[in-house]
Amino acid sequence: MKDSRIESVTRAITQDEVSEHGLTPEEFKTACRILGREPNITELGIFSVMWSEHCSYKSSRAFFHLFPTEGPRVLQGPGENAGIVDIGDGWAACFKMESHNHPSFIEPFQGAATGVGGILRDIFTMGARPIANLNSLRFGAADHPKTEFLVSGVVNGISSYGNCMGIPTVGGEVTFDPSYNGNILVNAFSLGVMKTDAIFLGSASGIGNPVIYVGSKTGKDGIHGATMASEEFGEGSEEKRPTVQKGDPFIEKLLLEACMEVFETDAVVGIQDMGAAGLTCSTFEMASRAGNGVELNLDAIPQREKNMTAYELLLSESQERMLLVAEKGKEQVVIDIFSKWGLDASVCGSVTDTGRAVITWLGEVVADMPAAPLADEAPRYERPHSRPSYLDETQAFEPTNLPDIEDANPLMLELMGHPNMASKRWVFRQYDHMVGADTVIAPGADAAVVRVHGTDKGIAMSSDCNSRWVYLDPYDGAGMALVEAARNLSCVGATPLAITDCLNFGNPEKPGTMWQLVEAMRGLGGARKEMETPVISGNVSLYNETDGQAIHPTPTVGMVGLIEPVEKALAGGFKEAGHQIAILGTPEGKHLGGSTYLNVIHGLTSGRPPKPDFEAERKVQGTVRALIHEGLLTTAHDCSDGGVAVALVDSSMHDGAPGARVTLPGSGRTDERLFGEDGARILVAYKPEDADAVKAMAASHGTPLTEIGQTGGDRIEITGLVDLPVAALRNRWETGFEDAVGLS
Amino acid sequence: MRWAVVTFPGSNCDQDCVDQLGRVLNQDVVSVWHGDSELPEVDCVLLPGGFSYGDYLRAGSIARFSPIMKAVTAFANKGGFVLGICNGFQILLEAGLLPGAMQRNIGLSFICESVSLKVENKSSALTCQVPSDTQVLEIPIAHMEGNYTADEETLKALNENGQVLFRYCTEQGNVNDAANPNGSAGNIAGISNANGNVFGMMPHPERASENILGGTDGAYLFQSLIATMEGQR
C-alpha cells in the first residue's frame, strides 16, 4: 500500500488548486501538454513557481530583443546568474542588480537583507569575489505614515547583511515619491571581480556527475515567495509575511568563503544559487542549460525541521543555499571544504541524459518532468499595450505658463533641504562602506570607485533613474536614465563599460502599464546602442501596484565603468578657494519639464523630460574624462536634479569646502537658468594656471566650455539671483533627510 | 617582523590586515585558522575585525572559545604582542585579556565614518612612532558595539597607568560628548593591558594606511609596533 505521505504529494489536483497556484487555463493546458498528462500537486507547485512572472519574465521576454547584449568586452551576457565584462589584463568584473520590492514592503528588514544576500550569491556563484554593493531605494512620500518604518527597516536590513558579509556598500540612491506609497522599491546591486579563466556557470554537465546541495539547511520559509512577488498588493498583503525569507549573513559569509575555496580546486563543474523558487529553479535551470536531466533525491536534502513534505522542500526559499555539480569522484573534496566552514554538503542526485528532472522522496518518484520545456518554454505574452491617457494632460503642460521666480533664495534653501536632495549620510553611515580597504570614492559622490585589489584598476559604479521623467515619457525618460548614469561615471573619470538593470513597473495586464514597459525598453535599448553600453544582466519586477495604484515606471540602471590608474579618480566637491568654475557642455539651462524644481516648489509632476542628445553627451562625457585623466580638474559634478544651481551648491556641501561666486550665462527666465535640467552638462572647476590647457582640450573635443566664476568665500552668490551663506545651505542639506522622514 | 592574522568564522577584515601589513608595510604575514591550537613562530598576533560567529549572543563571546585563543592567551601571558582591531578588540575583552566590556552604540545603529582620535599615550608600543607634533589621528570606525564600559575602579586604573591610548575627539583634539560617536566611557577608543603588550582599538588602522584610501595615520600604529619589536630583537 502507498505511504499516505507519498499520496499527499502525488495526488491529483482540483481546478481550484490550479487557479490558486496562479496558472491560467491556457497555461494549465500547456503544462498538461508538456507532461502528456495532468500534473500532480507537487508538479503543479513546480509549474507555478517556474512560470511565475518573477522567474519566467513571461510579460517582458518578448521584448528582450530590444536590448543589445553584445560588445567586445562582454564575456557573459544575460541568462546566467550574473553578467561578466572583461576589464583587461586577465581580470573581469561580474555584476547584476535585482529587485526585492514585494518582500521589503511586507517585512522591510528581512526583505532588504535577503535582497542583499540574494544578489551576493548571484555574484559569487559565478566565481567572482564580491567587492562592492549599491542599493537603489524608493519610498513613498517622506511624510507618509509608513515611510519612517520602511526606511529604518530597509536601511537596517541592508546594513546588517552587507556589513556582516564584509562587502562594502559604496553607494546607490534613496528617493521619495507618493507613487511608491503602496509599493517601495529595493533594487540591490552587487559587483565582484575574478580572473577571466575562472568563471563558473550554472550548468549541470557531465552525465553521471554528482549533484551536491551546499549551505544552510532547508526550512519552511519563503514558500511561494516568487509567486507572491508576481501579484498586485491589496488588502491583507501584510498577511503574506510568511512568504518572506529570513536571512543569516553569518552563514552566507561562510558559504562565500567555502565557495571561493572550492573554486580553487578542480572539483566544480557547475554551480547555481538557490534564490527565487529555491531548489526547483536551480535544478531545472541547471539541467536545462546543459540540455541534460537530473535525478534528485529529496531525502538527502539537509532539513531544518522534521516532517517537511516534498512540496515544501522543492518550493522553500530558505536562504544561503547553493546547488553544485561536481566532477565524479571528487565529492569528498567538496564535502571536506564545506565541513571545514561548518556547512552542510550533501550528495543529493546526479546528472542524467534523459533531459528530465526526476525527483524522489521517501524512495518514490514524486515528480517526473522534462527540464528544458519548463525553463525555456515558459509562457510568453505579447500583452496588449496602448499609450495611457494621463500623458495627454501632463505632456500638454507648459512650464513657462507659471510665474517666474522673484526671490530664489528661499527656494534654494527649500530644494537643498528636500529629502530627495539632502545628504543621505544617515543612510550610508550605517553601511560599512570601507571594509575591503579598497574604497577610493565613498558614498555621496556622482559615482563610487573601488580599487581592484592587486591592480591599478578602479571600478566605478552608479545607479540612476529619474522615474518622474519615465512616467512623463517612458522612451526619453529611460534613455536619459542611461545617459545620466554614464555622465555620473564620467564625472569621476571612468569610461562606461556595460549596464545591468531592474525594470520596476506596475501590472503588465493593464495596457497603459505595458506600454510604459515597452516604451522604456525601447528607450533603454536605443540609448545603450548610442552609448555603447550593452546590458549584461538584470531583472524585471512587475505588479508593483496596490489597490490599482501603480508606481511610476522605474527602469533603474546600474552602470559600471573602468578607470585606470585608479589614482586618477576624481572625487566631487570644490577643493579650495580661487579655482575657476565653468560649465562644460550645454551653457544655458532651459529645460524645466518634469524637473525637480516643478516637483518640489510647485508640487507638479508635469511636462516632458529632455530628449537625450547622444552626440552631445558622448562629447561632453569624453571631454570630462580626458580632462580628469590629464589631472586638469579639481571638481566635476553632473548637472542633473535641480540644474546648475543645485550642482553648484552641492559642490560646497562637504566639510571645509569653499563657497562660490558665479554669473550664469543667458538672460532668459530665472527658473530655467537656475534649475533647468538639460542634459550633456557638467559643472567643473580647475586651477587658474590650468585654464588654458582646459580650454584647449575642450575646444579640441568640440565641447563648449563657459567660465562662470570662482570658488571662494563662505557664500553662494549667483549674480542677481542667489546670495546665501554656505552654512545656511549646509544646515538644510545636513538635516533635511532626517527631518522630513522623522528619523532621529 | 612576523605577524599572525587569525581568521575566525565571520572575520571580514582579516585579508585587509594581511594585505596592508604585507603589501604596504613589507611585513611577513601568516594567516592562522581559528581551529588551530598552536600559533606559528611570530612576533605579533593580530585579531582582525568582522563579525566572528555573526556577533551572535554578544560580539566576540563565541570566538573567545575558538581553539586558537588558548594559544593567543599563552602568547600574551608570555609578553607577546597582541593587537585586536574592532571585533578583535571585542574578542580580547571577552577573553579577559583586556579589562572592560562593550555595549551597543548609544544610538543603537551601526556607525561607519572617519573619526578623530586623540593620542593619549605616545610611549606605548602601539603609539611610539606617532610624530611628536601630531596629537590627533584620523582613522575610520565601523561597528555596532563600540560603546566601551568598565567599572569605576578599572577606568581609574586605566587612566592612571596610561593604558588609555586613544579617545574620540573633535578635529581640534577636544575630548567631549559631541565627539563621542558611540557613548564610550571617557570617549575611550583604544586601550592596552597593564603590561603594555596587549592592545584593543575600535578604529581600523588598516583602512587608513594608504593615501588612496584617504589617509595614512593608521600606518603610524603598525610602524610603532614594528619599531618596538625590532628594538627588542
Summary tags:
heterodimer; A: 744 residues; alpha+beta; 7-stranded mixed β-sheet; globular; B: 233 residues; alpha/beta; Rossmann fold; 9-stranded mixed β-sheet; two-stranded antiparallel sheet; 5 helices
Helix-strand blueprint:
The complex is a heterodimer of chains A (744) and B (233).
Chain A lengths: L3 H7 L4 H6 L4 H11 L5 H10 L2 H4 L17 E3 L6 E6 L2 E9 L1 H6 L1 H17 L4 E11 L7 H19 L3 E8 L8 E11 L14 E6 L9 H4 L20 H15 L4 E6 L4 H13 L2 E5 L12 H6 L5 E6 L4 H10 L3 E9 L3 E6 L2 E7 H6 L13 H7 L11 H10 L7 H4 L10 E3 L6 E4 L6 E7 L2 H6 L1 H19 L2 E10 L6 H21 L3 E7 L3 E2 L2 E2 L3 E10 L16 E6 L10 H7 L11 H16 L5 E4 L4 H8 L9 E3 L7 H6 L5 E6 L4 H11 L3 E7 L3 E4 L3 E4 H16 L3
Parallel strand pairs in A: 4-5, 9-12, 17-18, 24-27
Antiparallel strand pairs in A: 1-2, 2-3, 3-6, 4-6, 7-10, 7-11, 8-10, 9-11, 12-13, 14-15, 15-16, 16-21, 17-21, 19-20, 22-25, 22-26, 23-25, 24-26, 27-28
Helix pairs in contact in A: 7-8, 7-10, 8-10, 10-13, 16-26, 19-20, 19-22, 22-25
Chain B lengths: L1 E6 L6 H11 L3 E6 L10 E4 L20 H10 L3 E5 L1 H8 L6 E3 L7 E9 L16 E8 L3 E3 L2 H9 L3 E6 L18 E5 L5 E4 L15 H16 L1
Parallel strand pairs in B: 1-2, 1-3, 3-4, 4-11
Antiparallel strand pairs in B: 5-8, 6-7, 6-9, 9-10, 10-11
